[in-house]
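Troubleshooting entry. Yesterday's outputs looked truncated, so today I'm pasting the complete records for two proteins to confirm everything comes through intact. If either block looks cut off, that's the bug. Protein one:
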Amino acid sequence: MKRRTFLSLATAESLALSGSVAPARTMPGIKAIAFDGFTIFDPRPISALAEELFPGKGLEFSNIWRTRQFEYTWLRTLTGAYADFWRVTEDALVFAAKLAKLDLTKEKHQLLTQAFLEFRAWPDAPAALKHLKESGIRMVFLSNFTEAMLNAAVRTSGLQGSFEPHLSTDMVRAYKPDARAYRMAVDALKLGREEIVFAASAGWDAAGAKAFGFPAFWVNRMNLPVEELGFAPDAIGASLHDLVSFAIGSDARR
């Protein structure tokens, strides 16, 4: 399957699913938003590239890869054996290829990892970020990505100037949902937890942020169920436009 065809199908599926998500309610007293990387950056081209490189097996392979990425972050945090997200990404890639019994040549390895430096923003990101910034909401990435990965994604997405200095888990050598990772936003922004919304792209991350004490908004583009972890997000939306409605309904215009 060609990359353009794969992306078109993925986009259609995402739009169809997102239409069933209820609009988010508003949240008072919000002064800043801490974003997970994938709320802003679209990971679908990586799956499309995997399908090009491994026809008929790309979706299975990319699902294994992404699942192992996050499992490795959790295991490395629990065992105290920290390695940055670039290393984790490479390790998970090698494992995924072995599990799927695929020939991961040096060229394919380089193409797949390079894709993590070439993210583009979701189509709704530029307008939503502009609206938030004009409304006085401070914005920062709080991400597992390394600073170099975040810088590259911001640059390729044309979003320079939208965010305050990046908060990478490298700074505390602990991945989300460890409290040390979320606490970076409190320390950097000099705000109370209740004044910072954490915008998550994954249900487990929304639960982790809520457990830490943040108001949590889940940008649930795939209309997935809430995780059974005992911590539900304050609101769920299908897009960043729903996040804007959630935040701008506060006293942000000051």
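Protein two, checking that the full record survives here as well:
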Amino acid sequence: MSEICVKCNKHKAVIKMQHGAYCEFCFVKYFEKKVYDTLTQYNLINKKEHIGVAVSGGKDSITVLYLIKRFAERHKLEKPIAVAIDEGIKGYREHTLKTLRQFCKNEKIKLKIFTYKMLYGKTLDAIIKEIKKRKLNIHACKICGVLRRQSLNKIAKNIKLNVLVTGHNMDDESQTILINFLKGNFELMQKQGITTKINNKAFVRRVKPLYFLSDKEVKLYTMLKGFNVKYNECPYAEESYRNDVEYFLNMFEAKYRGTKNAIVNTYIQLMQNQKESKINTAHTTFCKKCREPSTRKLCKACELLEKLYIS
């Protein structure tokens, strides 16, 4: 890229943004300001809160952990705790966790790692093997997503966190919005957003400071900051419904720049005037088996585990 940065008019640009090209110095400033503005504008983290950051060792979680630590130091907030889930994906998760351990050691951040084996009795690899053996029509991403969400909520409550920060970026969120729209999951759409819209003590509030930043922007930020992260994806992701939606959105973004940004901003506008969903009330029910919050007698996690006879 031979263009000159539109912000400083001095340095060579490294990325073409929607409103012009930025050099590496201006881009880093833009990126960090975007995260800090999101944190303050939407009041995502408050004083005296116990802050947890859900981390995997990938680019998104490393980035948000780094910036939350800096934000906490700047505003004299409690130092964040990094919380990781080891699903048990051989040849993949052990490498990202190695990166994560080193990063947390360098940044002096407390890290807690929990495993599916510890929480559910089996690794994800073993669960997938069981699914294939029984010829069940359950995709790896579905069961992993359900178990991951439940386990993070359980752990966050157990270690008394008030807020759990996740590394979901604009690509993730635009995909989720479109997936729920295509599947007609309006109730799930209502619970999405920069922060969870569930006012109930059974749920630990989740927030997404990278909500307005694209996957491409996050990747470039980690490169410019020199973070030692891998950019490979989970081996189970290729066959997922989300993977197809991601491919579709990337094609549209390439042809019509700003598509993903338009999706998340339109979603926010649509949801602003929506009434709270049923699960936001004080009458939340609980799973009869694991006692985690659920909209039905048996939660999705226990339902899936029962099918596999491992719960």
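Both blocks look complete. Sanity check on protein two: The chain has one domain: 42-308.
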